[in-house]
Amino acid sequence: MDAARLAALETAALEVEQHVAADGWDAPPRLFALVPTAELLAAEPALAVQLGPADPEALTPVEQEDLPEHDTLDELLAGIGWPEGVLGAALVVERLVLPPEAEAGMPGDEQEALDWLSSHPQRQEVRVAVAVLRDGPRACVLRMRAHEEEVLRGPDLVPALAEALAATLAD
């Protein structure tokens, strides 16, 4: 994997998380197309004022507004498909998480599990940004509500979510 390309993907993941963070917590999922900045500027030269000079590897996140109605994130992602010019996608979601040792007592029923998780004393609220490219690279950014100044980064922080987002790019 080209280091500059991976750095551009990581930058895009961080940018979308920071963009969503500016609106505060308790937000719905937000979805972004990732397009090559150089191609975007070639098609829309007026954007150069906002975006600056085009790094050949840079990606520009384009927020997808008016997402389709959905009951679950899986349902939303199952209904998403991207045109060929979109190199990748990014998704920002908020979740409640527990340390692995605390998950042992989680009920099997989905609603009971949600209620249990919501009231668990070890729960943490997190905002996760996942970015994927059509040809496989992934980047993740995770921010905990209790420690907003800290950002965790890594390609495999939420592998199932990255896989589900990557499936939206499959031909």
Give structural notes.
- The protein has a six-stranded antiparallel sheet.
- It has one domain (3-167).
- 32% of the residues lie in helices and 28% in strands.
- The protein is globular and about 55 Å long.
- The protein contains six helices and six strands, in the order αβααβαβαβββα.
- The protein has 171 residues and is of the alpha+beta class.
- The relative contact order is 0.19.
Structural class: alpha+beta
Q: Level of helix content?
A: 25-40%
User: What order do the strands of the largest sheet run in, or round the barrel if closed?
Assistant: 2-1-3-4-5-6
Q: What portion of the residues fall into strands of 2 or more residues? A: 25-35%
Largest sheet descriptor: 6 strands, antiparallel
Shape: globular
Radius of gyration: 17 Å
> Number of DSSP helices?
6
| N- to C-terminal distance | 21 Å
Q: For the residues shown, what is the average pLDDT?
A: 86
* Strand tally: 6
Task: List segments where confidence is low: pLDDT < 50 over at least 5 consecutive residues.
Answer: none
What is the helix/strand order?
HEHHEHEHEEEH
How many domain units? Answer: 1
What topology does this entry show?
Elements: H1 3-21, E1 30-36, H2 37-43, H3 48-51, E2 59-64, H4 73-78, E3 88-97, H5 110-119, E4 124-133, E5 138-144, E6 147-154, H6 159-167
Antiparallel strand pairs: 1-2, 1-3, 3-4, 4-5, 5-6
Which labels suit this protein?
171 residues, alpha+beta, 6-stranded antiparallel sheet, 6 helices, 28% strand, globular
